[in-house]
Amino acid sequence: MRSKDQFQGIQRSLQRAWIKGAGFTDEELDRPLIMIANTYQDFSPENAHLRGLAAAVKAGVRMNGGTPIEFNTFHVTDSEAFAAHSMRYVLPSRDIVADSVELMAEGHGVDALVLLTGGDKPTPGMVMAAARLNLPSILLYCGPTKYGEYRGKHLFLETVYDGVGEAVRGAISAETLKNWEDELFPGPGAGDTLTSGNTAGIYTEALGLSLPGTGTLAGGTNKQIRAAKYTGMRIVDLFRENVRPSDILTPAAFENALRVALSVSGSTNLVLHFIAMAKEAGVELDFSFIDKIGRETPTLAKLAPSGPWGVTELGEAGGVPAVLKELGDLIHGDTITVSGKTTGEVAAAAENTNPELLATRVEPKAPEGAIYILSGSLAPEGAVVKASGVTPAMWEFEGVARVFENEEDAITATLAGEIEPGTAIIIRNEGPKGGPGMREMLGATSAVVGMGLSETVALITDGRFSGASHGPAIGYVGPEAASGGPIGLVQDGDTITIDLHARRLDLAVDEAELERRRTSRVAPAPNVTRGYLAFYAQHVAPANQGAVMPR
């Protein structure tokens, strides 16, 4: 027990006095000290119920002979920050969440960790911390909440956001949009869309860091509360058995998790986070590996926004274990999980109860995974698109560039009816360095969809997209404009070509002209000149390296 060095022996009397001052007893200090890192906050639905879940985790820890202690880290909530200056702070928070867990766990000499989290930045941040610390660890995801309903219509996150454009062009009334807004969340948890957060809940379970079935459990339900108690009980066993993240987070486990996420139409943000998590775990993982796995992995489910099904419905159909079962021998069955069972054993015990939602490998929804890595003259270091959300009409596209230096200007022009069919909207200076912070462009994609342009207009950016984004939205274009990439040289009227079949993204401008533009280009002034984001812009790695900070 590391905690003995912190609290045992005559020389540690003051330290014991201090923790006793918070009400702890000698008997509690004789037991394994289990730290719960909680992202509870009362102003976002994915975190609002985590105080209750933490109490259930603590009960489980105590039932199995451990002593729980809890601290709160944070979640900069992206869904409350779309298309605003505040979105620049969301991605940078991921690495700070990892740092906060490291500081608290090492600063208090704890024996093991329970990572209680919601959101797609805190969740991979927690995995990064687990890999870095290599203490016995288990993660419990906040869970989705079932889709809302209004007059028989299923409401997902993208329903409301796309509704803004629909209301602007008169397709729906402002009153209808408000009713959708009021009815979207029937309870606590993340929305029922396969957002980046819910994708993270799925891939952390597939990695083996969460108990089977917990990644898709509806938030705040009795089942989830019981799962929280079992999570608390199990972490004490993991400590006693000395099972550590290094035993779980192997190259084979990352491959399993990547296949699962791609097969259910996961968010493009998983690309960024897989690279960052793998780096902390000492696993080599890059764009080319993700592309290779994507080509080999069929799409078995099209969850919203790529299809009509909610994440809770995937859970009801058998969840991640059923996906593992359907993927069959594409999965490394000998990887271990926090449950004490191998991935193969988890899959063998699963049942797919809804083949309409979760297809078989024999008859998949699509022959390849949902996410494609593109390359070409506009993206020499690669770009990312969620192909499952792109209509067939847009898989091959030639468009005329309309360039915007930020997302807000693109949204304004789109909602004002200034974007013509056949346009390739270019939004630049939104990458990790140039943003800084690599904002999600859900506001822009929703404006395009809401204005009825999703089959005639493409959107291309060095920023990134939300899991709720759909349509022909290509992000992660690298190098980003702030690092001298070709996207910074595009001018209005240039020809942009997209070919998803060939996985190409090209700018039809010759090299001599690009060199002339490069020579005369004047870089825009930084959007932020002080504080954490200024520091972040100076040190952050590019998107194809996970946008990690040096650690």
Topology:
Layout: H1 2-7, H2 13-20, H3 26-29, E1 33-38, H4 50-63, E2 67-72, H5 90-107, E3 112-117, H6 122-133, E4 137-141, E5 148-150, E6 153-155, H7 157-168, H8 174-183, H9 196-207, H10 222-241, H11 245-248, H12 251-263, H13 269-281, H14 287-296, H15 311-316, H16 319-327, H17 343-348, E7 371-376, E8 379-386, E9 396-404, H18 407-415, E10 423-427, H19 442-450, E11 458-461, E12 473-478, E13 495-499, E14 504-507, H20 511-520, H21 531-539
Parallel strand pairs: 1-2, 1-3, 3-4, 9-10, 10-11, 11-12
Antiparallel strand pairs: 5-6, 7-8, 8-12, 9-13, 13-14
Helix pairs in contact: 4-10, 5-6, 6-13, 7-8, 7-19, 9-12, 9-16, 12-16, 18-19
Summary?
With 551 residues, this protein is α/β, with parallel strands linked by helices.
Query: Helical residue percent?
Result: 25-40%
What is the radius of gyration computed over CA atoms, rounded to a whole number of angstroms?
23 Å
Per the principal axes of the C-alpha atoms, what is the gross shape? globular
Distance between the termini: 27 Å
Overall average residue pLDDT: 95
Count every beta strand, where a strand is a DSSP E run of 2 or more residues. Answer: 14
Strand arrangement, major sheet: 7-8-12-11-10-9-13-14
What structural category do the secondary elements indicate?
alpha/beta
How much strand? 5-15%
Number of helical stretches of at least 4 residues: 21
The major beta sheet can be summarized as:
8 strands, mixed
Low-confidence stretches: none
